Amino acid sequence: MDVVSKVYGKGRNAVAALREVSIGLPRGGFTAVMGPSGSGKSTFLHCAAGLDRPTAGSVRLGGTELATMSETQLTVLRRARIGFVFQAFNLVPSLTVTQNITLPLRLAGTPVDRPWLAGILARVGLADRADHRPAQLSGGQQQRVAIARALVTRPEVVFGDEPTGALDTMTARDVLTLLRETVDQLGQTVVMVTHDPVAASYADTVLFLADGHIVDTMAAPSPVAVADRMTRLGAWVR
Ligand SMILES: Nc1ncnc2c1ncn2[C@@H]1O[C@H](COP(=O)(O)OP(=O)(O)OP(=O)(O)O)[C@@H](O)[C@H]1O
Fold this sequence. Notes:
Keywords: ATP-binding, Nucleotide-binding, Transport. The protein is an alpha/beta fold. It has helices at about 40-50, 70-80, 95-110, 115-125, 140-150, 170-185, 195-200, 225-230; strands at about 1-10, 15-20, 30-35, 55-60, 60, 65, 80-85, 155-160, 190-195, 205-210, 215-220.
């Protein structure tokens, strides 16, 4: 990402959500994005993932420039090369676990690689739930389905927007451990927005945003160090 700016609205109502942000996210790394409310985290994620286009600047995935792509081109690129995990699991209630996981492949017209699918089901611990429907699963299991769905296309990057935001502490830990394993064992690149210093501590690097700028990065983050940095950003001052 090079000198990326994003302005919402026009004239006197214009809000600069990102201000000339330049950053490279390492392939095969786990990056967490933190910052106070309104600092631009979601905007950063949306621009990096091709869900939204920046007002100015360059966003690249591998060698592909995203900033100038049409909506249709972005849709095709997202389907083929990016995985998403959101706070709300966004599963289709009428489909089984397997059908939910393979939905991105069907949308892209890509055949299902059965051994890869079986491996993913095993990795997320749902091999014995393959024919269940989402309503028959716990919240943590549903988020595991969403992670499996994000991984099934072998995306270059998995983007998470508060992926553990709807989960209790223990279940959140399982999901974070799973994301960590995809990085360590599959070489997956993961970028995750979170409010939770413990969640951020599972990442290799934390980016801190404030007022549309990246104001700091932290390697090998501990929950305490992340919480301390957030406090100094005024994130939790009431
Ligand atoms: N669609 C939009 N139209 C106008 N302003 C927007 C829009 N989306 C975001 N903003 C503004 O841009 C700024 C950054 O918003 P963003 O959602 O990226 O922050 P955030 O760090 O993700 O916040 P939070 O932690 O509260 O989710 C905020 O001032 C917000 O009000």
